[in-house]
Write a structure and sequence with these properties.
- The protein has about 375 residues and is an alpha/beta fold.
- It has a single domain (about 25-250, about 265-378), classed as TIM Barrel.
- Helices cover about 40% and strands about 10% of the residues.
- The chain has helices at about 30-40, 55-60, 65-80, 105-115, 135-150, 175-185, 200-215, 225-230, 255-260, 315-335, 340-360, 365-375; strands at about 40-45, 65, 85-90, 120-125, 160-165, 190-195, 220-225, 235-240, 250.
- Strand 6 (about 190-195), helix 7 and strand 7 form a beta-alpha-beta unit.
- Helix 4 (about 105-115) crosses helix 5 (about 135-150), helix 6 (about 175-185) packs parallel to helix 7 (about 200-215) and helix 11 (about 340-360) crosses helix 12 (about 365-375).
- The longest helix is centred in the last third of the chain and has 21 residues, at about 340-360.
- It is globular.
- The two termini are about 35 Å apart.
- Bound molecules: zinc ion.
């Protein structure tokens, strides 16, 4: 069942590859793929809770602020002379349970606001797609009107239509969404949303890669470490959350689960060798000399991450997190074979969990690690 092609459609690059066989292939060995990865940027994604977001580590990397307060932060940075990569995600896609209203009336306003900030990329104020083709088409049509508004600002930066991909669209809805993305033939910023890790299964990672490869230019708007693999696998760029709260667009949790997690006020501590963010409270009983928690990022310089069991160290923990994932991203995307390097980073993390378990330390292994390992060529 096809989706009508929006009036704004332009010829699709992705369709030139011929019929899709339903499988995503990942390789960064061709000269074109290497050139794309070299150009790609992974920015920091931050909101009002990321208090270190105005500081050195984040700004060297480039930053995307989200929401209305994000626009205020971005304007403040520009007024203080910041000239680096900066963007604003209007983030009106969070109303997952509401019928998507039309956005044509404020597409112009939103484009003008972003143009005033001199953004590095424009993001549409898209709403989430519900489980219907009509909802999906509505988001893409509104996105097309936003792209036209951006063109009228005389912008030189790329513009993306934001599409929220809920678990339904990575499973039953995948064929429909993939066709719509290919027919739309305009750049899309994907926001993978789920109650927990949106890319925590082999099917989800394969689906995400298919969507990226079907698009005429993909950006990964807010993500965790999987953004590195998605850029290696075909996206033009992306952003990784500055803290645990911005690395996914969450979906509503069942009350019991939410109540339990809200009682724990300890920090989420990014552990680069484990590619995960365990709570400080889960690290309380660990021996201080565990090698896996020694961090050599520019912020820690050989100190143990176990110091972040102190909740008062939130700002330093956030600066460490960005420095540490940025080092991983740069190593992968700067490699001669980024996909092979991404696989080796995942394998190292998988092995590190095994070593901890052998020492009697059980920490939850994020699903995305084995999901990616099951998809990538060995
Ligand atoms: Zn560190």
């Amino acid at each position: 069942m096809g989706i009508p092609r929006p009036a704004m459609g332009i010829p699709a690059n992705a369709a030139a590859d011929g019929e899709n066989d339903g499988m995503a292939s990942v390789s960064t060995r061709t000269p074109e793929a290497k050139a794309r990865v070299r150009r790609a940027q992974l920015l920091v994604y931050a909101g009002r809770n990321e208090v270190a977001a105005r500081q050195d580590v984040h700004l060297r990397r480039g930053i995307i602020f989200h929401g209305r307060l994000g626009a205020v932060e971005a304007a403040g940075l520009r007024s203080r002379g910041f000239t680096g990569a900066l963007a604003v995600d209007p983030e009106r896609y969070t109303k997952l349970n509401e019928q998507p209203p039309r956005l044509i009336s404020d597409a112009d306003l939103c484009a003008t606001e972003q143009a005033t900030l001199g953004v590095s990329a424009y993001f549409a104020p898209s709403f989430a797609t519900q489980r219907t083709q009509a909802s999906l088409l509505s988001v893409l049509e509104d996105g097309a009107s936003f792209l036209s508004a951006v063109e009228r600002t005389g912008a030189s930066a790329p513009a993306y239509v934001s599409v929220v991909v809920t678990p339904f669209w990575l499973s039953e809805g995948l064929d429909v969404l993939e066709t719509a993305v290919r027919d739309f033939a305009r750049p899309i910023a994907f926001v993978f949303a789920a109650p927990f890790d949106p890319l925590g299964s082999q099917a989800a990672v394969e689906g995400a890669l298919r969507l990226i490869q079907a698009s005429a230019g993909a950006f990964i708007l807010r993500c965790d470490l999987s953004a590195i693999g998605l850029v290696a696998g075909g996206a033009m760029g992306g952003s990784v959350g500055a803290s645990a709260t911005t690395r996914h667009l969450g979906m509503p949790l069942r009350n019991a689960r939410r109540d339990r997690s809200s009682r724990d006020n300890s920090l989420h501590v990014f552990v680069p060798r484990l590619l995960s963010w365990p709570r400080g409270s889960t690290l309380e009983h660990l021996a201080d000399d565990l090698d896996v928690f020694v961090c050599r990022c520019g912020v820690c310089q050989g100190d143990s991450l176990l110091r972040f069991r102190e909740a008062s160290r939130a700002v330093e923990a956030e600066r460490h997190a960005v420095a540490a994932w940025a080092a991983i991203a740069d190593a992968v995307l700067g490699d001669n074979d980024p996909i092979a390097r991404w696989r080796s980073v995942l394998e190292s993390a998988d092995n590190a969990y095994g070593e901890l378990e052998a020492d009697g330390v059980a920490l939850g292994r994020p699903g995305f690690i084995r999901a990616w390992l099951s998809v990538l060529p060995a």
